[in-house]
Write a structure and sequence with these properties.
202 residues; 0% strand; elongated; single chain; mainly alpha
Length: 202
Protein backbone atom coordinates (compact mmCIF):
# COMPACT_ATOMS: atom_id res chain seq x y z
CA UNK A 1 0.00 0.00 0.00
CA UNK A 2 1.08 3.55 -0.74
CA UNK A 3 1.91 5.04 2.66
CA UNK A 4 1.64 8.81 2.76
CA UNK A 5 4.07 10.86 4.81
CA UNK A 6 3.41 14.11 6.68
CA UNK A 7 6.79 15.32 5.47
CA UNK A 8 5.78 15.11 1.80
CA UNK A 9 2.64 17.26 1.90
CA UNK A 10 0.96 19.87 4.06
CA UNK A 11 -1.35 17.45 5.82
CA UNK A 12 -1.78 16.79 9.54
CA UNK A 13 -0.94 13.42 11.04
CA UNK A 14 -4.64 12.65 11.43
CA UNK A 15 -5.36 13.58 7.80
CA UNK A 16 -2.53 11.27 6.70
CA UNK A 17 -4.04 8.49 8.84
CA UNK A 18 -7.44 9.02 7.22
CA UNK A 19 -5.98 9.11 3.71
CA UNK A 20 -4.01 5.92 4.32
CA UNK A 21 -7.15 4.26 5.68
CA UNK A 22 -9.04 5.37 2.57
CA UNK A 23 -6.34 3.87 0.36
CA UNK A 24 -6.50 0.59 2.30
CA UNK A 25 -10.30 0.45 2.04
CA UNK A 26 -10.27 1.10 -1.71
CA UNK A 27 -7.56 -1.52 -2.13
CA UNK A 28 -9.51 -4.13 -0.19
CA UNK A 29 -13.14 -3.42 -1.04
CA UNK A 30 -13.20 -1.09 -4.06
CA UNK A 31 -13.95 2.58 -4.40
CA UNK A 32 -17.71 2.06 -3.99
CA UNK A 33 -17.15 1.06 -0.35
CA UNK A 34 -15.36 4.29 0.51
CA UNK A 35 -17.95 6.08 2.61
CA UNK A 36 -17.51 8.48 5.51
CA UNK A 37 -19.30 6.02 7.79
CA UNK A 38 -16.99 3.13 6.87
CA UNK A 39 -13.89 5.29 6.96
CA UNK A 40 -14.76 6.70 10.37
CA UNK A 41 -15.04 3.15 11.70
CA UNK A 42 -11.70 2.24 10.12
CA UNK A 43 -9.84 5.01 11.95
CA UNK A 44 -11.83 4.85 15.18
CA UNK A 45 -13.50 8.23 14.86
CA UNK A 46 -17.08 9.39 14.87
CA UNK A 47 -18.36 10.71 11.56
CA UNK A 48 -18.55 14.19 13.09
CA UNK A 49 -14.92 13.98 14.18
CA UNK A 50 -13.80 12.86 10.72
CA UNK A 51 -15.58 15.83 9.17
CA UNK A 52 -13.31 18.09 11.23
CA UNK A 53 -10.37 16.83 9.15
CA UNK A 54 -11.99 16.57 5.71
CA UNK A 55 -15.18 18.16 4.39
CA UNK A 56 -16.22 14.86 2.87
CA UNK A 57 -15.36 11.94 0.61
CA UNK A 58 -14.62 14.21 -2.35
CA UNK A 59 -11.96 16.14 -0.46
CA UNK A 60 -10.30 12.90 0.62
CA UNK A 61 -10.26 11.69 -2.99
CA UNK A 62 -8.87 15.01 -4.21
CA UNK A 63 -6.13 14.82 -1.59
CA UNK A 64 -5.20 11.27 -2.58
CA UNK A 65 -5.06 12.19 -6.27
CA UNK A 66 -3.02 15.30 -5.57
CA UNK A 67 -0.59 13.34 -3.44
CA UNK A 68 -0.08 10.82 -6.22
CA UNK A 69 0.37 13.60 -8.81
CA UNK A 70 3.07 15.29 -6.76
CA UNK A 71 4.81 11.99 -6.02
CA UNK A 72 4.66 10.87 -9.65
CA UNK A 73 5.89 14.22 -10.97
CA UNK A 74 8.91 14.14 -8.69
CA UNK A 75 9.68 10.52 -9.48
CA UNK A 76 9.37 10.82 -13.28
CA UNK A 77 11.19 14.12 -13.53
CA UNK A 78 13.90 12.70 -11.26
CA UNK A 79 14.41 9.80 -13.67
CA UNK A 80 14.64 12.15 -16.64
CA UNK A 81 17.06 14.56 -14.96
CA UNK A 82 19.42 11.96 -13.49
CA UNK A 83 19.42 9.14 -16.04
CA UNK A 84 22.54 8.72 -18.14
CA UNK A 85 20.68 6.56 -20.65
CA UNK A 86 19.42 7.56 -24.08
CA UNK A 87 15.77 8.58 -24.63
CA UNK A 88 14.55 5.07 -25.50
CA UNK A 89 15.97 3.58 -22.30
CA UNK A 90 14.68 6.54 -20.29
CA UNK A 91 11.18 5.64 -21.48
CA UNK A 92 11.77 2.09 -20.24
CA UNK A 93 12.96 3.44 -16.87
CA UNK A 94 9.92 5.70 -16.50
CA UNK A 95 7.38 2.99 -17.28
CA UNK A 96 9.16 0.38 -15.18
CA UNK A 97 8.91 2.79 -12.26
CA UNK A 98 5.29 3.65 -13.00
CA UNK A 99 4.15 0.05 -13.35
CA UNK A 100 5.94 -1.00 -10.17
CA UNK A 101 4.25 1.88 -8.36
CA UNK A 102 0.85 0.65 -9.54
CA UNK A 103 1.65 -2.91 -8.41
CA UNK A 104 2.65 -1.60 -4.98
CA UNK A 105 -0.45 0.58 -4.79
CA UNK A 106 -3.36 -0.86 -6.80
CA UNK A 107 -5.80 1.41 -4.97
CA UNK A 108 -4.56 4.45 -6.86
CA UNK A 109 -5.32 2.65 -10.14
CA UNK A 110 -8.88 2.10 -8.93
CA UNK A 111 -9.18 5.84 -8.36
CA UNK A 112 -7.56 6.98 -11.60
CA UNK A 113 -9.63 4.53 -13.66
CA UNK A 114 -12.92 5.64 -12.07
CA UNK A 115 -13.77 8.34 -14.61
CA UNK A 116 -17.29 6.91 -14.89
CA UNK A 117 -17.90 7.53 -11.20
CA UNK A 118 -16.39 11.02 -11.52
CA UNK A 119 -18.22 12.04 -14.69
CA UNK A 120 -20.45 14.50 -12.84
CA UNK A 121 -17.68 15.85 -10.62
CA UNK A 122 -15.50 18.31 -12.48
CA UNK A 123 -12.94 18.72 -9.66
CA UNK A 124 -12.13 15.02 -9.53
CA UNK A 125 -12.02 14.73 -13.32
CA UNK A 126 -9.67 17.71 -13.50
CA UNK A 127 -7.39 16.15 -10.89
CA UNK A 128 -7.20 12.92 -12.89
CA UNK A 129 -6.48 15.01 -16.00
CA UNK A 130 -3.63 16.73 -14.17
CA UNK A 131 -2.08 13.35 -13.42
CA UNK A 132 -2.34 12.33 -17.07
CA UNK A 133 -0.94 15.68 -18.21
CA UNK A 134 2.14 15.28 -16.02
CA UNK A 135 2.93 11.95 -17.65
CA UNK A 136 2.04 13.16 -21.15
CA UNK A 137 4.28 16.23 -20.84
CA UNK A 138 7.27 14.25 -19.62
CA UNK A 139 6.89 11.35 -22.06
CA UNK A 140 6.39 13.83 -24.88
CA UNK A 141 9.60 15.62 -23.97
CA UNK A 142 11.59 12.37 -23.97
CA UNK A 143 10.09 11.30 -27.31
CA UNK A 144 10.84 14.73 -28.83
CA UNK A 145 14.44 14.50 -27.63
CA UNK A 146 14.74 11.04 -29.16
CA UNK A 147 13.49 12.43 -32.46
CA UNK A 148 15.94 15.31 -32.31
CA UNK A 149 18.78 12.86 -31.70
CA UNK A 150 17.59 10.66 -34.57
CA UNK A 151 16.96 7.57 -32.44
CA UNK A 152 13.16 7.73 -32.63
CA UNK A 153 11.35 7.93 -35.95
CA UNK A 154 9.92 11.31 -36.95
CA UNK A 155 7.32 9.75 -39.23
CA UNK A 156 4.78 10.83 -36.62
CA UNK A 157 5.02 13.87 -34.39
CA UNK A 158 6.07 13.54 -30.78
CA UNK A 159 2.46 14.13 -29.68
CA UNK A 160 1.10 11.26 -31.76
CA UNK A 161 3.87 8.91 -30.60
CA UNK A 162 3.22 9.89 -27.00
CA UNK A 163 -0.50 9.17 -27.39
CA UNK A 164 0.24 5.74 -28.88
CA UNK A 165 2.60 4.84 -26.05
CA UNK A 166 0.38 6.12 -23.25
CA UNK A 167 -2.78 4.65 -24.75
CA UNK A 168 -1.18 1.23 -25.08
CA UNK A 169 0.18 1.29 -21.54
CA UNK A 170 -3.17 2.45 -20.21
CA UNK A 171 -4.83 -0.56 -21.85
CA UNK A 172 -2.32 -2.90 -20.21
CA UNK A 173 -3.03 -1.36 -16.80
CA UNK A 174 -6.79 -1.59 -17.37
CA UNK A 175 -6.54 -5.29 -18.27
CA UNK A 176 -4.50 -5.86 -15.13
CA UNK A 177 -7.14 -4.07 -13.04
CA UNK A 178 -9.97 -6.07 -14.63
CA UNK A 179 -8.09 -9.32 -13.99
CA UNK A 180 -8.19 -8.58 -10.29
CA UNK A 181 -4.43 -7.84 -10.38
CA UNK A 182 -3.72 -11.48 -11.21
CA UNK A 183 -1.61 -10.81 -14.31
CA UNK A 184 2.02 -9.68 -14.21
CA UNK A 185 1.63 -5.97 -14.86
CA UNK A 186 5.31 -5.12 -15.11
CA UNK A 187 6.12 -8.05 -17.42
CA UNK A 188 3.11 -7.44 -19.66
CA UNK A 189 3.57 -3.70 -19.71
CA UNK A 190 7.23 -3.85 -20.62
CA UNK A 191 6.55 -6.42 -23.34
CA UNK A 192 4.09 -4.00 -24.95
CA UNK A 193 6.40 -1.02 -24.48
CA UNK A 194 9.38 -2.85 -25.97
CA UNK A 195 7.28 -3.82 -28.98
CA UNK A 196 6.24 -0.21 -29.50
CA UNK A 197 9.79 1.06 -29.11
CA UNK A 198 11.03 -1.40 -31.72
CA UNK A 199 8.55 0.12 -34.17
CA UNK A 200 9.49 3.67 -33.21
CA UNK A 201 13.26 3.30 -33.13
CA UNK A 202 15.20 4.31 -36.25
Amino acid sequence: MFLLSVMENNYTERQIEIMNAATARIDQYGIQELTIKNLAQDVGLSEAALYRHFKGKKEIMLSLLDYFRVQMKGRVEGIISTSTSGPVDVLREIFTSQLNTFVANPAIVSIIFSEGIFQFNRELLEKVSEIMNVMETNIGAVVAKGQQLGVISSMLGSGANTTIIMGSMRLVVLKWKLSGHKSDLVKDGMAVLNGLLKMLEK
